[in-house]
Amino acid sequence: MTLPARPVPGSLLSHVTADDIDHIYRAGVRRSYGAGEVILRQGDPTDHVLVLLSGWTRVSAATRSGHELLVAFRGPGDVLGDLAALHGWARTANVETLDLIRAIVLRREQFLGLLADRPGFALAMLKQMSERLREADLIRADFATLDTTKRVAACLLRLLRTHAAPMPAGVQLRIPLSQQDVANRIGASPRSVARAFAVLRDRGIVISSRGHLLIAKPDVLLAFVGDLPNGT
Prior knowledge:
The protein is an alpha+beta fold. Helices cover 42% and strands 25% of the residues.
């Protein structure tokens, strides 16, 4: 059995035991996907879920007005397609690979069987869902209480918690991130997000280059936002 990469904090595989992981491997089929592939498509019928073992994906959804909402970046240990599988819904978002990924494919009935037969797996799924609900609540709180520049800063800080790569000059995000991505994530206009990034660059907090972001002064970024709630 090839072990997964270090799981993202709060993901399914960060909560399960080695025995549960073994059952997931034996129940599913291992697959690899290249960069730039749409592996789940919004509106498609549901027949399987994916348990990510390595690599990163971008989750987005089209709104009724035709705008794109950046839902999240998901990586090792995360489950994709779980809510649709639980309820038998059509896919609620698009999932695109950012690099080469490895995953375990579980048919919907296999996924539901693991939830029914293995309490540890079911509890881990509840914990993953609670992490995602908390994440969504915090973003709503940011929208209600922070101006655009502070919302951008808060977005970057939260991404650093799971996507940070320490560098000599600061901390770099391990995922490609554009200003449009940030705008789609926090529900702001591209123009206002561009102004926010200009403020952060002028203060030497953020250095951006071709979709990659380096946070040169993480402590200053945190102080700029103020108290960043962790949720309840």
